[in-house]
Amino acid sequence: MYAIEVEQLNVSYFETTALEKLSVRFTAGQLVGIIGPNGAGKSTFIKAIMGLIPAGAKTITLLGQSTKEARTRVAYVPQRSAIDWDFPIRVLDAVLIGCYPKLGLFKRPTKQHRALAVACLERVGMQDYANRQIGELSGGQQQRVFLARALAQEAELLLLDEPFVGVDAGSERVIIDLLRTLRNEGKTIVVVHHDLSKAADYFDTLMLLNRQLVAVGPPKDVLHAKTIEGAYGNSLAFLQKVEVTS
Ligand code: ADP
Ligand code: MG
């Protein structure tokens, strides 16, 4: 059983082809990084497999089910810029939303749900912020709250789009440690990550995109000078920032 199985995925926005003939499979229980230059289709890939944008594909399955069937088993945290941070919501309520799939329609959260939400905030070190407005938090704190919400949902597959952008070093540590713990518990975590410098350290598997699949596999294979050059162009300034295997 694959956590994600995609065959022949094509996505276009009017005249722009964002993804072409993309086929890829990820086994469950690993930490996967999606890398590639700006505009490579990384966010598009996540949105397409979540069924949030129209896409053509021969197969898209999440945890062996259709996207619709798997919905409650999958948590998605969009790119920071795609979230309205001025929306007035308390931290605890933002996490409680994660319990809704279990609640069903019209049911109010119970004491147990609140206790679960608080426990999830504790796992990301944000319990002291439960009554704050989400908009008052720093980028790193907001990202931790969204992760707490994914925990409350008890999702088996987590899809995170650029979770480290605009995040302080302390929060980045907390987040990556938690992602590793979740991976060790058997969950599958897929992270869009455009900064290559930590890619080898953070991920078990990398998928390098550039409108098409450029490479997928262990970081040491994917971060090979030739593959990186192919996707990013041979900009030396860029390559010097990354330790590529030659
Ligand atoms: P990445 O996340 O890798 O930076 P995206 O998936 O956001 O890339 O975008 C892939 C391509 O699709 C880019 O060329 C982008 O300009 C285009 N694109 C993304 N979203 C839209 C949209 N809503 N309408 C039109 N074009 C879009
Ligand atoms: Mg993106």
Automatic annotation (TrEMBL):
<feature type="domain" description="ABC transporter">
    <location>
        <begin position="4"/>
        <end position="236"/>
    </location>
</feature>
<dbReference type="InterPro" id="IPR027417">
    <property type="entry name" value="P-loop_NTPase"/>
</dbReference>
<comment type="similarity">
    <text>Belongs to the ABC transporter superfamily.</text>
</comment>
<dbReference type="InterPro" id="IPR003593">
    <property type="entry name" value="AAA+_ATPase"/>
</dbReference>
<dbReference type="Pfam" id="PF00005">
    <property type="entry name" value="ABC_tran"/>
</dbReference>
<dbReference type="GO" id="GO:0005524">
    <property type="term" value="F:ATP binding"/>
</dbReference>
<keyword id="KW-0547">Nucleotide-binding</keyword>
<dbReference type="InterPro" id="IPR017871">
    <property type="entry name" value="ABC_transporter-like_CS"/>
</dbReference>
<dbReference type="InterPro" id="IPR003439">
    <property type="entry name" value="ABC_transporter-like_ATP-bd"/>
</dbReference>
<keyword id="KW-0067">ATP-binding</keyword>
<keyword id="KW-0813">Transport</keyword>
<dbReference type="InterPro" id="IPR050153">
    <property type="entry name" value="Metal_Ion_Import_ABC"/>
</dbReference>
<protein>
    <submittedName>
        <fullName>Manganese ABC transporter ATP-binding protein</fullName>
    </submittedName>
</protein>
